[in-house]
Amino acid sequence: MFQQYTSTTSRRTEVLAGISTFLATMYIIVVNPSILSQAGLPFSGVLTATVLLSFFCSLMMGLYARNPIVVAPGMGLNAFFTFTAVKGMGIRPEVALGAVFWAGILFLLLSVLNVRSAIVRIIPLPIRYAVSAGIGLFITLIGLENARFIVANPATLVSAAHLTDPILLTFVFGLLLTSILVVRDVPGAIIIGIILTTLAAWPIGRYWGDASAINVGQKTLVNSQGIWAAPDFSLIGKLDLTNSLTWALWPVIFAFAFTDLFDSLSTFVGVAEAGGLQDADGQPRNLNRSLLTDAVSTTLAGLLGTSPGTAYIESAVGIAQGGRTGLTAIVAGCCFLPFLFLSPLLSIIPSIATAPALVLVGAFMMKPVTRINWGQLDDALPAFLALVLIPFSYSITQGLIWGFLSWTVIKVAVGKSREIPIGLWIVDVFCVLALFSA
Q1: 235: in domain
Q2: pLDDT tens for residues 330-365?
Q3: Are strands 157-160 and 309-311 parallel, antiparallel or unpaired?
Q4: Residue 71 in contact with residue 57, Cβ under 8 Å?
């Protein structure tokens, strides 16, 4: 499905891809404020900041970097903001927003100096292939979790839910239907699958709500409070720049910077490998501009009043739909903007409707794993660790860190230290620091 497109795309394809990407990422509009509100920030203010950040930075990714990748507040980063920085360390929310801003400034410096792109270039090819497949498995896990197909189990950690649940039957219907549309190469297969799954979910709306809707206290599939809500700009400029720039806060700034750095790098590398979005040198296309956009998103996040912005792995949904140019990101970004006023409408398309698309995208992203030489264990084992730890640890960063460290240790142990570039040794130092600062 991830065809190696060059110029063989069309405006219609890009628009459909942009809509598909938005439908796969729109959950962040409600989920992000539901998490950050637990840090003491107003729900409506964070929602407004989330929409504005997603709109402006996705537009920048499309117009400036010309890549079909959505940028929005990152999951994981918002949890670190709330539960580690604010609740765990007792940092005031305004100070934490200042730390986000300074992490963005650090990003900008690294991007201007091309340090971030240099890191991408030293990532061993087997690790790149593994990261792409690992992100695919991660996306699949998210889809299965959103559909409540995979549930927590105290005895086995996770298990499959019973298919007697009408929610799961609706998901299975959507998954099989979308799979058939994809296999038959129906134009707009993914977005058609999302729409039909949504229609199938409506009859059970009175018994079940979207995961994001539950977080804000909704009981039904469709928001009963109407379709319109006024934007709240109260968080814009509320960050504390002075108290956030102290020695005590540098570990927090570093954690924001490092986590966002490797989340975005691995997303660019993984999506580029799976979707054929590479330049003549085999590097992710327009990498420097993409990384600069990502850096701007983190800086802007602090100013607007939300956790750091990052490139979204769900962008793979639009790429699977055929999106290959910046128009995909532009369309997706523009889809965010109306929800400054129409956020209650988000509950109309539940997460179960996009879950089949996420599961299938995981399958599409597995292709690069066939390029790993599994017979050469000093290459294969680090790649395997990177591949499996991304979904198993629920962290792209953890997979990349352990892929790097195991690559270095194994290569040294077998007498192949010459295959380790100097830059990778430096990255390994930061990986160790990140592990102990988490």
Answers
A1: no
A2: 999 999 999 888 877 766 667 788 788 878 877 877
A3: unpaired
A4: yes
Q: Is residue 228 part of a domain?
A: no
Question: What stretches in the chain show pLDDT beneath 70?
Answer: 1-8, 76, 116-117, 187-188, 203-226, 274-275, 346-349, 437-438
Quote the Cα angle for 135-317-124, to 5°.
30
Residues paired with 278 in a beta bridge? 284
Alpha helices of 305-421 — where are they, by DSSP H? 315-320, 326-336, 351-364, 377-392, 396-413
Q: What is the pLDDT of residues 296-333, one digit of tens each?
A: 999 999 999 999 998 887 888 888 888 888 999 999 99
CA distance 69 to 283: 16
Cβ neighbourhood burial of 162 (10 Å; 0-12, 13-18, 19+)? exposed
Q: What's 117's DSSP letter?
A: H
Amino acid at 309: G
Specify if 205 maps to a domain: yes
Beta bridge partners of 284: 278
Place of tokens 């950690």: 157
d(CA 437, CA 7): 45
Q: How far is CA 224 from CA 195, 212, 385, in A?
A: 21, 15, 46
- Tokens representing 61 are 């990714």
Domain total for the chain?
A: 1
Q: In 3D, which of 132, 30, 60 has the Cα closest to residue 293?
A: 60
Structural domain for 359, as ranges = 11-222+240-365+374-437
234, part of any domain? no
Q: Could you tell me if 271 and 315 are in contact, meaning their C-beta atoms sit under 8 angstroms apart?
A: yes
Query: Taking a C-beta distance cutoff of 8 angstroms, is the pair 277, 271 a contact?
Result: yes
